[in-house]
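Input chain follows. Return structure tokens only.
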Amino acid sequence: MGHVGKVAGTHEWVVPGLPYIIVYIIKVDDDVVDVVAVFHGAQDR
């Protein structure tokens, strides 16, 4: 889900129906997804 993030190595997912963007890192070797941040869509990141 999501797309490549603004920072190298991250991904971003815009939550459907809500004004939130979740920034996450996928660690394939460990089968882990780390949530780095949750932003409101109106925030100036």
